[in-house]
Design brief:
- Strands 1-2-3-5-4 form a five-stranded antiparallel sheet, sandwiched between helices.
- The protein is of the alpha+beta class.
- It has helices at residues 12-25, 59-75, 118-130, 132-135, 146-160, 166-176; strands at residues 30-36, 40-45, 50-54, 86-90, 95-98.
- Helices cover 38% and strands 14% of the residues.
- Strand 1 and strand 2 form a beta hairpin.
Length: 196
């Protein structure tokens, strides 16, 4: 296992070296670096899976990796939500290896017209909401500042408003102009619960 006594961001080289050691320890080999996100670096492994490695190692990051693995294992056999199977998890080094799902990432190929994707994305969100009770044991409840979310949604609508059909944009603007809703008690699983 990788010694991880120090918390905090690591250099790209340190993360790459940790990826190599972690893959080797689990009988695989890193083929390529796929990309870097906010929290993770992704690597293609020679067995066809994807290794996600946390860039920062601290107790919170290790817990997040373990929780995400547990959530994905719970969701793996549930209908309506394509969840990758966990190949291995090594929370001590911030590692999670997942099978690669078929298809093309929307990050790699953004839709010219995203509106046709809305029904499929709505179905996915509805399926996630329906699985809340299955996932409840491993999802961390976060206290949200609904006023902050409302302000962020208003700012986003200003940026993308011209891309939204007029009647939908007007409905969104009316909804966003209402008072901040009271915090809910009926929790639902959402895409943000699946990791980043």
């Amino acid at each position: 296992a990788d010694p991880v006594g120090e918390a905090g961001p690591m250099t790209a080289r340190e993360v790459d070296q940790r990826a190599e050691r972690t893959a080797t320890a689990h009988g695989a080999r890193v083929v390529a670096r796929l990309g870097v996100g906010t929290d993770n670096v992704a690597y293609a492994l020679d067995d066809g899976s994807v290794l996600r490695l946390r860039q920062t190692l601290d107790d919170e990051a290790r817990d997040a990796v373990a929780r995400e693995a547990a959530l994905l294992e719970l969701l793996a056999d549930q209908p309506g939500v394509p969840a990758p199977r966990v190949r291995f998890v090594d929370a001590a080094v911030g590692a999670l290896a997942l099978e690669r799902l078929p298809g093309t990432s929307l990050l790699d190929r953004p839709a010219v017209d995203p509106l046709p994707l809305v029904p499929a994305l709505g179905d996915l969100l509805a399926a996630l909401h329906a699985l809340t009770s299955v996932a409840a044991p491993v999802v961390v409840r976060e206290e949200a500042d609904l006023g902050e979310h409302l302000e962020e949604a208003q700012e986003l609508l200003e940026v993308v408003g011209s891309l939204v059909p007029v009647e939908l944009r007007e409905r969104l603007q009316a909804q966003l102009a209402t008072d901040t809703p009271a915090p809910g008690t009926d929790l639902r699983l959402c895409h943000a619960d699946l990791g980043a």
